[in-house]
Amino acid sequence: MARSEFKRKRHYYTKAQIESGLLTKGKEWMFLDGTEYMGQYHKYTTNETFSEINFVKGKSRKLIPYVDVSSIGTETLEGIDLAKNFHYNEIKNLDVLKTTQPNKDVEPIKDKDLKNGYLERFFGYKYDDTCIELNKEKFNQIGTDEGLSGVTYKKVKLRWKISGPVYDVKDENGSIVDYGVFDTNKRTVALISEKYPSIKLKLLDFLEFYQL
Questions:
Q1: Taking a C-beta distance cutoff of 8 angstroms, is the pair 100, 146 a contact?
Q2: N or C: which end of the chain has fewer CB within 10 A?
Q3: Is residue 93 located within the same domain as residue 49?
Q4: Looking at the domain assignment, is residue 135 inside a domain?
Q5: 31 lies in which domain range?
Q6: What is the Cα–Cα distance from 64 to 29, expressed in whole angstroms?
Q7: Is 116 in the same domain as 195?
Q8: Both 107 and 164 in a single domain?
Q9: Residue 167 domain-assigned?
Q10: Element (H, E) at 38
Q11: Are residues 31 and 133 in the same domain?
């Protein structure tokens, strides 16, 4: 286990910053190594989630949203099992003549994004079912002499919610009256992953870039 799994962002949190005594029966959280977690857990206003009812030094481990990695366990044309390669950021790239090497470069949050409550995220999706996140400039360069090969990579972009309530707010009839950041992004990832499966492995934190 990585030592960072047991570390919180801060040394001290007030009671108002901690939501303790939560319980999951499964299909909701997992450890960083991909192991599903079931049991008591707690959350912080810093968007951190840890196992155990309250933080126990050396025992509580960081949790991330659950992803059914086995559902992506199909082999690519090269016989690579994506599920078994879950711990890697991306599968080893094939050598492609005159192809610029990809470098992760996320688009920064702008004032208009804060105003709109969402930002656009850009990806280069490779034919072997791996992908990399790019900024808008590098995204637009796919297929040009300056960018990634248009033969090897497809352009994929999505809208990512960054402000609002954390979870959906529903009325007494169960209808959503205010869409939550976590739930909206979770739905977005589920939808786009139907066509581009490995994107769900890049977007495990549905509260990433969340603005309080």
A1: yes
A2: C
A3: no
A4: yes
A5: 3-65
A6: 6
A7: yes
A8: yes
A9: yes
A10: strand 36-44
A11: no
Q: Which residues pair with 75 in a beta bridge?
A: 81
- What residues does 161 pair with on adjacent strands? 118
Q: How many domains does the chain have?
A: 2
SS3 state at 178: strand
Determine the distance from the C-alpha atom of residue 14 to the mean position of all C-alpha atoms in its chain, rounded to a whole number.
27
Q: How far out from the chain centre does Cα 40 lie?
A: 22
Please spell the DSSP secondary structure of 83-130, one letter per residue: GGGTTSSSPPPPP-TT-PPP---PPPP-HHHHHHTEEEEEEEEETTS-
The 10s digit of each residue's pLDDT in 19-66 is 988 999 888 898 887 789 999 999 998 889 999 999 998 899 999 888
Which one-letter amino acid corresponds to residue 153?
Y
206 within a domain of the structure (yes/no): no
Digit-coded pLDDT (tens) for 196-205: 998 998 898 9
- Whole-structure pTM value: 0.53
- The residues that bridge with 49 in the sheet, in sequence order, are 43
| 46, amino acid identity | T
- Distance between CA atoms of residues 153 and 99, nearest Å: 10
Integer Cα distance of 43 and 49 in angstroms: 4
Q: Which helix (H) or strand (E) holds 181?
A: helix 181-193
Q: Token pair 């977690």 is at which residue?
A: 37
Q: Do 187 and 107 fall into the same domain? A: yes
End-to-end CA gap in the chain: 31
121 and 179 share one domain: yes
